[in-house]
Amino acid sequence: MSLKELSQRLGLSQTTVSRALNGYPEVSERTRQRVMQLAREMNYRPNPSAKSLATGRTEHIGIVLPIEKNLFVEPLFGEYLAGVAQFLAEADMDITIIPTPFSQELEAYEQLAMSGRVDGLLISSPAVNDARVASLVGSNLPFVVHGRTHCDQAYSYCDIDNQGSFARATRLLIELGHQHIGFINGDHSLNYANDRYLGYKSTLEQYGITYDPSLCIQGEITEESGFNAAAQLLMHRPRPSALLISNMIFALGAMRALRQHGLEPGYNVAIIVHDDHLPYLQADKFDPPLTTTSSSIRKAGYEITKMLHHEIELGGNAPAKQQQLLEVDLIIRGSTRIRRN
Amino acid sequence: MSLKELSQRLGLSQTTVSRALNGYPEVSERTRQRVMQLAREMNYRPNPSAKSLATGRTEHIGIVLPIEKNLFVEPLFGEYLAGVAQFLAEADMDITIIPTPFSQELEAYEQLAMSGRVDGLLISSPAVNDARVASLVGSNLPFVVHGRTHCDQAYSYCDIDNQGSFARATRLLIELGHQHIGFINGDHSLNYANDRYLGYKSTLEQYGITYDPSLCIQGEITEESGFNAAAQLLMHRPRPSALLISNMIFALGAMRALRQHGLEPGYNVAIIVHDDHLPYLQADKFDPPLTTTSSSIRKAGYEITKMLHHEIELGGNAPAKQQQLLEVDLIIRGSTRIRRN
DNA sequence: GCACAAATTCAAAGCGCTTTGAAATATTAA
DNA sequence: TTAATATTTCAAAGCGCTTTGAATTTGTGC
């Protein structure tokens, strides 16, 4: 079923039918109804490739998925994607996932900027100095970064206040009397982890506590590395009386380590975790319920996509770059119930 | 940079340039080199929409993502997707994710079958009687199902032997002396969960143990529902001495419930879990290490995509439907170390 | 009834690629 | 050398849509 065939059956030109279908005003209501009805009956769907070729828009946003290192992002990726998808369902657009060997990532972005495969791009997990962003600011493909990076030119981003919220969490622990606070974090080359690190460190120093690098451990987001990190921290002397943990997966492993050492989380060791709202792993259901810095990564996916959509709609009208900081709540629960150690 | 421009610079026709680039034999090696080089220099990328329009292929495979209920699949979805992506990087194709309100899912599939947006489709989590499959077998869009469903016509699928592996796991528990085996499973309307249920039930009956429906609990894949299910099972009298658990997320919750009841997993209650190889949650690292039925869902994603790609390549040459069953290992670890209860 | 404007509709060009069928050139056999 | 064949190149049509600029129809005021 093509436009041509449809218009022949209607005894109208392709122009009129196309306009009727796309809601242009220069077609009479009577004709429009007639067209719409037959289109529905015939189950007509415009061919997307033809449409893209004619309009220059694909109605797809792109996400480059590095295939070697995606273990890394993964526990959060699905949830983030759900947020992206939720917005796109409203906008009636699709996601193009571009699987790319890590070694060819940059070229992939450069290609995308030229090829018109997608109308815009979403960038996740930026590094402190992100080469992808540096490359894209020079192109005219709309993109929004989930997180921030160091870049001398303006770019659109949607982030949370990682530094601020981890500063708050650290402050809370200090005010509860903790002097030795272990920190289990993501890789510091990633901006979000670096920001959290800065929030932690600066708050310690603000309270006159010397920052001890051996209390701060980086790792991939797996239960196991949470366990290993906690196990290592528990060997530290004096033993940390509190743990600050960058995500729920780490927390699982850390709590396993605590128990294995005969320590009860929340009683012998205070815990604060950053909670991205993985629906299958709820912080308030833990034993004890976990004190968290809390921010929905699904919401982030939704909001960043809304921003990208906005830039796409504006087209070449060089819109001001947007930036959005999503709320982070500090939710106090049982895992910080005791003071001191 | 278009083909036209490129061919003008070369003093060749578009035909020749197109053929040189696409490796057709009717162009001399000298010309081909010349073309390829300039194309590289100019950083030429053919416009994908134009290409699709001309060839009828998009180099995209589709995945419909129901946006309301995707909480459900999610913990496994990322890992599955990683496998899909891994194969597609080799085949140089992309994934189109089509976000769809659950209520419009079927129409979305029908549309896709007509519109030529994708070259093929991947179906996940089929129901026992799956309407999507029933609808697609009538179309000529290639698709492969991850799992199986009841359908009178042939279709391609890639699955694991859920029934067999859960039968084996149940048998192991029975032979270890367990008579009361609790089962925490996914929703029985989904075929994979139903198969597991059948494996469990038939094995019980085979050993002359009456199947007790109150020992079999269904739920969404969250830590919390694993906890609730286990808590409920522990109230059962006589108390089950073993738990069969459908995935690692459930297992987290179940073990929390056990501990809360003062029971030690593997000692007071035996546990077997199905392990999909979530890289961030490893069964052998649990405490105690978990006995599992083990099968990589990432591998499944890779294999199913390979199958789909094969069907796409074959095109209209009505290929025989393919079916593949991936291996499931029964790996015995500490969580089944004790006999009886 | 007519001239004029407004409302509808249309034919045709164009988006950037592939592919068919024909033309030009190079190669070989006699 | 010439005819016949093989090799290389080309012009043009077509994929299914949008959109421009023109043409047709309808409606208005006098």
Summarize the structure.
Two copies of one chain form a homodimer. Chain A has 341 residues and is α/β, with parallel strands linked by helices.
What does this structure look like?
The structure is a homodimer of 341-residue chains. In chain A, helix 8 packs parallel to helix 9 and helix 10 packs across helix 11. The first copy, chain A, contains twelve helices and twelve strands. Chain A is of the alpha/beta class and 341 residues long. The relative contact order of chain A is 0.12. At the A-B interface, helix 4, helix 5, strand 2, helix 6 and helix 10 of A face helix 4, helix 5, strand 2, helix 6 and helix 10 of B. Chain A binds a DNA duplex (30 and 30 nucleotides) through helix 2 and helix 4.
What are its keywords?
Rossmann fold, six-stranded parallel β-sheet, homodimer, alpha/beta, 3 domains, 434 Repressor (Amino-terminal Domain), six-stranded mixed β-sheet, 341 residues, DNA-binding
